[in-house]
């Protein structure tokens, strides 16, 4: 038998390629998928826009040039101006902050709440499962945007409330996803093995079940960000989300609908921004699914 | 006489069958139905039987991974069926399991080091450096290398994974290891290596094994005594050699004759069983084996044969021997 102490030093110099974990494995798979990388780049582009908005957008979001109302795209205003003479490009750049903020935080919120409910339902089963699952069923029985409108109507129209509404309507999707994943994982032999070792339930949940049920959640989460951005824009369009003068993309669409014929750029560019972001997240999500979800590498 | 490390008395595990909207119980699958046996310290008890006879359920009920419906399991003189969840966790230090599927029994997201560290952490070894040393030591003991510790399960072959599973079971210095079909998922060439490893470990650490398998050849190789199970009951239990030379129960005879013999000129004298194993949800009356038994008598359909000592150390549950042999002894 070799001396164990000697091997500790040897270990530090192990080739990193041999110790590639499942997450890194997925990243290598993802990088091979060109379309997914394009999606990732689009998303990254908008994230950078959002972060560096004050440096990129030379005009403030509310800087009004009353003389320059509804101007078409030009060298001075790349994407034209709106009915108040505000630079559309600047507003779109700041709008990226709002949309991404809403998308990410709404989804993170619903992932956290959905995961907790889903894990409890899946792991403990019985009547707890019945109550939680039926509750999800009831929520899913309503069209999601209708439910969101109802929630905002109760809470009052504002961007923050729209975010909460979007988070709430997405909870059952994640809850059910995690629940089904937990149901299959808890029958796996390594869970039995962990119990056999004498591990406590709570430790099994967090150290075995949760990490192994994360892959589909990440995939679904990425796709859900796209939906959340769309839903936020829809609520904004209906006047239930962001309030003027905030440069929310859906709100920009709503404000410019009267000028569709005379100044189409006021509508086209915010619309394009929504489309591109959603497309980016969807492409990225599909790529992630291919890389992580079908089956763990064995 | 060595002491009995584990004593099982009247163990039953019934799974309720639920039907309808409100989950009314309409019956039960009697997976393990009144099983009693003991295991002596340092020996290997093999449990054999065909799929669905309840051998794995027995193994899991012993450590309460499945809660037994009835019966008593005494480990080291203590009745562990009455233990609280917390006491039970402490006992698990001494009873470890090795599982059948080496692909499913290791968490794919953990490195080998993390997998092996878990039992140590759970049972209170707080010093990380000591843990590391112990992990490396045991990796070497089971025939792997210390540098394997940083790898993930998918980077190993089936045989290597089973070695990791065995190392995990050894981490807490257990007294008893319940091996649930530890080699059935492996290639035949690898089976022998793993079996030999288990035998070496038994000598080195003075382990007691309960070895569950469906392959009599494998069980004979490793076991001191063998219990044969059929439909949730033990039908015969005796020394490994005695069982092979003098099988008493007709089911054991059929099992033995099904073991292939590596000799082309060997006289085929096979006892071929007809039909399938009956459903454990609705077992036959009397002796559970009577539907397939070549020596069926009237009494077999009515009375359940008891597991009796037919010869010293040789227990069988069969009406063929009751009333005749039992009187002689």
TrEMBL record, chain A:
Pfam families, per database record: BPD_transp_1, OppC_N
Domain ABC transmembrane type-1: 96-285
Spans through the membrane: 35-57, 98-123, 135-156, 217-242, 262-285
Membrane topology: Multi-pass membrane protein
Signal peptide range: none
GO CC terms of this entry: plasma membrane
GO biological process: transmembrane transport
Location in or out of the cell: Cell membrane
Keywords recorded for this protein, A-Z: Cell membrane, Membrane, Transmembrane, Transmembrane helix, Transport
Highest taxon listed in the record's lineage: Bacteria
InterPro entries: ABC_transport_permease, BP-dependent_transpt_permease, MetI-like, MetI-like_sf, OppC_N
Family recorded in the similarity comment: Belongs to the binding-protein-dependent transport system permease family. OppBC subfamily.
Protein name as catalogued: Peptide ABC transporter permease
Organism: Virgibacillus profundi
TrEMBL record, chain B:
Alphabetical list of CDD domains matching this protein: ABC_NikE_OppD_transporters (cd03257)
Family the entry assigns: Belongs to the ABC transporter superfamily.
Source organism superkingdom: Bacteria
Keyword ATP-binding: yes
Keyword terms of this UniProt record: ATP-binding, Nucleotide-binding, Transport
Organism from which the protein derives: Virgibacillus profundi
Entry's Gene Ontology BP terms: peptide transport; transmembrane transport
InterPro entries hit by this protein: AAA+_ATPase, ABC_transp_ATP-bind, ABC_transporter-like_ATP-bd, ABC_transporter-like_CS, Oligopep_ABC_C, P-loop_NTPase
Name of the protein described by the UniProt record: Dipeptide/oligopeptide/nickel ABC transporter ATP-binding protein
PANTHER family hit by this protein: TRANSPORT ATP-BINDING PROTEIN
UniProt keyword Amino-acid biosynthesis present: no
Spans traversing the lipid bilayer: none
Sequence ranges assigned to domain ABC transporter in this UniProt record: 6-256
GO function term, MF aspect, one: ATP hydrolysis activity
